[in-house]
Amino acid sequence: MNYKIQHYFLLTLCLLILSCKKKSSSSNPFDDWSVSQRGPVMPDVPIDPNTIQGLHKNIFKPTCANSGCHDGNFEPDFRSIESSYNSLINRLATNTDPQNTQFVKRVVPGDAANSMLLHRLSTFIPGSQGIMPLSLEPNSDWISKKNDYIENIKTWINNGAKDEFGNSALSYDFPPQIAGMIAFADGSSTPLPHSGYNPVEIPSGTNSIKIMIAFSDDKTAVNQFGNTTLNYSLNPNNYAGSESAMSIESTPFNAKGFNGANVDYWQSITLTVSTLGAAANDVLWLRSQTTDNVNLPVYIPSVPSSFNLKKYCAIRIK
Ligand code: HEM
After folding, report:
1. Ligand 1 atom at minimum distance from 60 CA
2. How far apart, in Å, are the Cα atoms of 102 and each of 88, 131, 210, 214?
3. What is the pLDDT of residues 23-55, one digit of tens each?
4. CB within 8 A of 1, min separation 6: which ones?
5. C-alpha distances in angstroms, 14 versus 2, 8, 9, 221?
6. Which tens digits make up the pLDDT trace of 86-105?
7. How far is the CA of 94 from the centre of ligand 1 (A)?
8. CB count, 10 Å around CB of 143?
């Protein structure tokens, strides 16, 4: 028996060795490669300084997106051309200027005179950290080129703040954004305090809460919005409950929004505390869904929204 097995084993081994044929020597393409064969070096294509690509190359990347600054930590996010564009165009400024209330949005396409971006490069806003840029990297040419760069930004905005493909932002219809959230207890006409990026504290013993949300949109009047609903959950990342319809008031309630400026609140809903399924001290996270009748309905806050915004859109039942 052993004898037979040994035979098979040897036979197999032979077959294996025979089948391992050494490939004819495969040519390494780099063996014959030489520097002289390199293709023409792509010359630096001159970039128009009045375009978002030029602004990103000359200003946003070298002078603003420094580590710890606009490098994704907070908005505007100047890391890429796209993040710069998306966090500037028609975006509500986080810090507004009480002495110059016309500056509400970071970039208003076609209107440099009312764009916060330029205002922050020239004016100190009380309560802010200062005139931008707050500090300079050794390789920044901001000081020597500041006036030219500010002119480039002005020209870009007044030319419609085009994106990298040359599309004017004026031709876009951006989805709605949130401008504020307030809550009233038991039919009161005064909203409960709501400071910073924190939940609204609902006093213990409150029976009903009226929630109002202020939206902003670049083209559609907020009281002309389509279906708007509210959902709430004890988990900010999971809204399993059913959406509840919000109504549009006949006249807006004007009060502070999240960036400190007064805004109009049109959409409202009244909730009964006992039906919310929240115990004392629970945080109830709120999420609205709305549409400007042009873009698809949007959730605000949405999953990728900053946690600060999620905290702002929350209530704590005391
Ligand atoms: C030319 C380059 C820069 C530009 C264009 C710029 C632009 C801006 C703008 C428009 C805002 C207001 C955002 C809002 O309120 O919505 C802002 C805020 C801010 N920036 Fe800059 N920035 C620049 C450089 C820097 C640098 C280098 C730093 C860090 C050293 C910095 C730190 C901040 C901080 C902490 C805030 C938030 C606090 C505040 O509003 O004062 N920025 N920046």
Report:
1. 2
2. 16, 18, 30, 18
3. 556 788 778 777 676 666 666 678 999 999 999
4. none
5. 18, 10, 9, 84
6. 999 988 888 888 888 888 88
7. 10
8. 8
Which two three-digit tokens encode residue 270? Answer: 């009244």
Spatial separation of the C-alpha atoms in residues 131 and 124, rounded to whole Å: 5
In this structure, is the dihedral angle defined by the CA atoms of residues 30, 34, 39 and 44, taken in order, positive or negative?
positive
171 Cα: distance to centroid of ligand 1 (angstroms): 27
Strand partners, 181: 213
253 bridge partner residues: 265
Mean residue pLDDT of the chain comes to: 89
Banded model confidence at residue 132, pLDDT cuts 50, 70, 90: very high
Map out the domains of the chain with their CATH numbers: 52-171 (no CATH), 177-317 (2.60.40)
pTM of the model: 0.66
